[in-house]
Amino acid sequence: MKSSQDTASPDPVDLLIRLLKLASFVNSPMKDAVSDPLEIGQVEAKVMIALSGEGALAGHDLVEIMGMPAMNVSRALASLRGRGWIEEARDPENRRRKPVQLSAAGWAAERQLDERIAALAQDLLGGLSAKQRRDFANASDAIIVRMTRWIVSHHAGVKFHG
């Protein structure tokens, strides 16, 4: 991997490897600073984040969006349901689809999750300059749009707003 000090623009493979590295490295601080103090697993936390941002989603939507095995998502949903943090939602376009959404208790827990994430974000990203934060946000937004399009085009029937 090239140094970030190189003046040449990194190629897409190098950027993807950096993205994978970021995704892997963020798991440890998320576990220690967010999941463990709230006594939930990282998958449960990610499901809550997805539901708070996207609204009601079915389990198969979460599997596709999160790129996780169905069993992991199913266990997370069962855990969140057992805590009373999610409830069934209705899909008026498809009565057989079984989406879930955060319950009132889930939204209260999500606020605690947000507080922990905010503190961790300050620890990990607070030292970036305003320009670095803008550049990272712009690049992240562009990548998320492309990923959303890729997921939708490769996995029929996935519903999310991206």
Characterize this entry briefly:
The protein has seven helices and three strands; from the N terminus they run αααβααββαα.
Beta-strand percent range? 5-15%
Distance between the termini: 29 Å
Can you tell me the CATH superfamily of one domain? Winged helix-like DNA-binding domain superfamily/Winged helix DNA-binding domain
Oligomeric state of this protein = single chain
**Can you summarize the main beta sheet?**
3 strands, antiparallel
Query: What is the strand arrangement across the widest sheet?
Result: 1-3-2
Uncertain segments: none
Number of helices: 7
Write the layout of secondary structure elements.
Elements (H helix, E strand, L loop, with lengths): L11 H14 L1 H12 L3 H13 L2 E2 H8 L3 H13 L3 E3 L10 E4 L1 H22 L4 H25 L8
Antiparallel strand pairs: 1-3, 2-3
Helix pairs in contact: 2-6, 3-6, 4-5
Question: How would you describe what is shown here?
Answer:
The protein has 162 residues and is mainly alpha-helical. The protein has a domain of 70 residues: Winged helix-like DNA-binding domain superfamily/Winged helix DNA-binding domain (Arc Repressor Mutant, subunit A). The protein has seven helices and three strands. A three-stranded antiparallel sheet has the order 1-3-2. The longest helix is centred in the C-terminal third of the chain and has 25 residues. It is globular, with a radius of gyration of 17 Å. The model has no long low-confidence stretch (mean pLDDT 90).
